[in-house]
Amino acid sequence: MRVTMIGTGYVGLVSGACFSDFGHEVTCVDLDANKIDGLNGGKIPIFEPGLDSLVSDNVAAGRLFFSTDLPSAVANADAVFIAVGTPSRRGDGYADLSYVESAAKDIARALDGYTVVVTKSTVPVGTSRKVETIIKDVRPDADFDMASNPEFLREGSAIEDFKRPDRVVVGADTEKARDLMRALYRPLYLNETPVLFTSRETAELIKYAANAFLATKITFINEMADICERVGANVQEVSRGIGLDGRIGGKFLHAGPGYGGSCFPKDTLALVRTAEEAGAPTRIVEAVVDVNDQRKKRMAEKIFEACHGDLDGKTIAILGLTFKPNTDDMRDSPSLDIIPLLQAKGAAVRAFDPEGMEEAQNLMSGVGFCENAYDAMEGADAVVLLTEWNEFRALDMERTRKLLKTPLVIDLRNIYTPQEMASAGFEYHSIGRQPVTSDPATR
Question: Which end of the chain has fewer CB within 10 Å, C or N?
Fold first, then answer.
């Protein structure tokens, strides 16, 4: 099948590359000529494990193409996916659909023969109907059907998620559109992946409901962590204790500094706005949004308190800047809230992240960006573990203790255990567990 993907951001590029790996002929289109030139030259604009080789292999096989020529790509396509950005609109939190609407008009002008137009971007309920109206207004004679096909890709494991998903959701009103989508996802049928066909509105809401529920789990366990710290309990044991219940499950029950990234912050906020508009307010999701916003600020206070209420003139080493490991995505990362608050209290910040520093330099000022974790820790008064990159999981503790001015570790991801850190000679603070001081034998 011939597939056109409008947008070469995270969703569009990963989806396009994976569809081409299924054997389809895919053209990824973007208005950004520099990005397309880079992709044609082998430069991948995002970091996602395995994506560079997946793209190069399918380009070499003649199945994957990159172009700025939207009319030609759409005219030859059986399916056209809209995978452009839908950021939170400044001021009110609604999803900004301007890129989707612009793409719909461009697609309408280029349609030639029967085509299924698919919204892949995360969009509010009713957007697929809106896109259909736009296309019909521009081209009343166009022969097309609409479908909604939300993505469920986790940054850092997106290729695996696309090729071995828990489910595929397709919202479509006609059997002709459903048949085309079945053919497109045929390789997953062979793996017996559940493919759920629904109305378009239902498909759109499934995406928001899934992200809101996962964000709620994260926020819930973060609040449980706060209680654990007050009453002497261990949040990791609480997580395991409730996660073994099949009705709850253990995923997304890891306490930390709050969720970030490209999906949860904007999607929870967009769902709140959609619910308000529909006259069915979501009090739980509203609380999740508010608690998570406050969570990031609270983490800066936690660091301040661990430093005995004095950051003036002190140097803090930050390990990890991206919102999660295995991505270079800085969007709504806790580091963007925490670091400025530390600086406002007089701290000098030195930081290292394996993939996120180029983007971080565009978003942060006054930060010393370092070559590696040990460079960041040299002469620092404390080290903060902010993102759980694998390379931070087995730091040389003897070397770390010698590099730090004071042996103080604040672990906001619970990478280490209090016992091992005390034995290694550190004052150690973590999330939802009791702080420990160093073992006297190590001093």
Answer: C
- pLDDT by position in tens, the chain (length 443): 999 999 999 999 999 999 999 999 999 999 999 999 999 999 999 999 999 999 999 999 999 999 999 999 999 899 999 999 999 887 778 889 999 999 999 999 999 999 999 999 999 999 999 999 999 999 999 999 999 999 999 999 999 999 999 999 999 999 999 999 999 999 998 888 999 999 999 999 999 999 999 999 999 999 999 999 999 999 999 999 999 999 999 999 999 999 999 899 999 999 999 999 999 999 999 999 999 999 999 999 999 999 999 999 999 999 999 999 999 999 999 999 999 999 999 999 999 999 999 999 999 999 999 999 999 999 999 999 999 999 999 999 999 999 999 999 999 999 999 999 999 999 999 999 999 987 655 55
Q: From CA 313, how far away is CA 297, in angstroms rounded?
A: 20
18 is catalytic: no
Clarify whether residues 213 and 76 are in a common domain: no
User: What is the torsional sign of CA 287, 288, 289, 294?
Assistant: positive
- Residue 296 host element (H or E): helix 283-306
Question: Angle at Cα 32 formed by Cα 101 and Cα 168, nearest 5°?
Answer: 55
Catalytic residue among 18, 228, 263, 370: 263
For residues 275 and 301, state if they share a domain: no
Specify the number of domains making up the chain. 3
Domain range spanning residue 170?
2-198
Asked if residue 203 is part of any domain, the answer here is no
Burial label, 155 (beta-carbon count in 10 A; 0-12, 13-18, 19+): buried
